[in-house]
Amino acid sequence: MSVIARRALLRFIAASPVFAGLGPITKALAEEEHALANARDALDVFELREAARKVVPPAHWGYLMSGVDGDVTLHANEAAYARYQLRARRMVDVSKVELGTDLFGMKVASPILFSPIGSMRSMHPEGEVAVGRAAKTRNAVQIVSTQSSFSVEQIAEAHGGPVWFQLYTTNNFDVTKKLVKRAEEAGCPVVTVTVDTPSGRNTVTATRLRRDDTRMCSGCS
User: Fold this and answer.
1) What is the CATH number of the domain that holds 144?
2) Distance of CA 80 to CAs 49, 83, 111, Å?
3) Rounded Cα distance, 189 and 111, in Å
4) DSSP letters for 62-80
5) Which backbone phi and psi does 143 adopt, to 5 degrees?
6) Which pTM does this prediction carry?
7) Which domain holds residue 156?
8) Pairing between strand 101-103 and 106-108?
9) pLDDT tens digits, residue range 167-197?
10) Is residue 98 situated within a structural domain?
11) Residue 122 domain-assigned (yes or no)
12) Strands 106-108, 191-194: pairing kind
């Protein structure tokens, strides 16, 4: 069925009084009707998240979206950021908006950073390299995960500027020194340290969705 025909069918079903009492079903149909055809059509980042959820395999989506235990802290973080508001100022010159700031001696275009996410090729074939190219277009800081799908050198080359390095600590200090040394040689001016993994994490959402993923995938464990 063509995309146009599919959408026409969805519009018909959503408008039919026969399906009026089906609630969640009609809501789901309406959401699919308004699904993004192209990432450029997104009105905010949350629309991009919903579009990604439809195409990313369950195990990979769970890895990306999981918090710890019942995702309590994840939801608390979202609620905390929701309390911050932008103060609108009227009757001021906005012909040149400047969001630039200094971070550890670096001038960046915005205080919004690309956070480290490991194994990004599970989301997109070009993974962190594609993110590097995107960050380059906005002069944004990209933080590279220890568990990146590509080497820190490849990502830095795609970014075209210094990237930061996110470090997972280990109980082997020699390994830690080698990781930091390699990041330094690749031009990383900043190392950020993740401290929540040495004793393990109970990522409930990731584990649950991994069970629902019926594909043969050796990298999902």
Assistant:
1) 3.20.20.70
2) 19, 6, 18
3) 16
4) HHHH--SBTTHHHHHHHHH
5) -100, 125
6) 0.74
7) 92-195
8) antiparallel
9) 988 888 999 999 999 999 999 999 999 887 6
10) yes
11) yes
12) unpaired
